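A sample follows:
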Amino acid sequence: MPELPEVEALKDFLADHLVGREVVRVLPVAISVLKTYDPPVTAFEGREVTAVRRHGKFLDIEADGLHFVTHLARAGWLHWKDTLPDGPPRPGKGPLALRVALETGEGFDLTEAGTQKRLAVYVVRDPAEIPGIARLGPDPLAADFDEARFTKLLEGERRQLKGALRDQSLIAGVGNAYSDEILHAAKMSPFKLAASLTPEETSRLYEALHATLTEAVERSHGLAAGRLKAEKKSGLRVHGRTGEPCPVCGDTIREVSFSDSSLQYCPTCQTGGKLLADRRMSRLLK
């Protein structure tokens, strides 16, 4: 799933390629991808793109007062085309969900792999009309997101750190992969309760959050859309690396599996050498 660093890089890439250009066609291939109908998606056609923004994991393309907003969800992606294929795309069983064409002949496709179709596209007059954006918490890379604000967010938070970091209404943009990376950098168990953090631990978690996301954004900066997935994977230290040695201590990276996701962690770095039980409401094994 694209998270804050990848969506930030996509935002910059699209700003360079879209701003000042006219959208001539928006062609839905999978109707299920459209989550709004007023204004219709065709209302975006004939407008000049004026800005591209990011709201958490949402991409927002503005054109003359309308906003084309997409959330790529777990298996969605954006593919830039210097030259779009001739003719409209044909509906079928392939991954293509929607195509946007510019007057220059360039454009992009939105695709979604797998059977769970969660890719979403909205055309709205105000991004705040989208429930997922309206409920977003603060952006962790915003200038005003300092340690004091982070500390206040965690006050009284009874959830485990893994769940708290992934909650978009608490902090916008962090998902499954970067929450693993942040907790590894902070040397904390994913099942530690947020409310139990000492001031020193809160400070350490804040620094890990800021540094992990900032470094990932810097690695992705300037990359073409097609290279972002590979860059994300290459930069991850623990997430998706079950069975590999920890790059910090050499211990074997372990995994906890849930019904629809998994997390990875290093026992030596994060849990005092103890293994986490592989169930949703896990406690440290005795």
In short: The longest helix spans residues 199-220. The first strand starts at residue 23 and ends at 28. Confidence is low (pLDDT under 50) at residues 280-286.
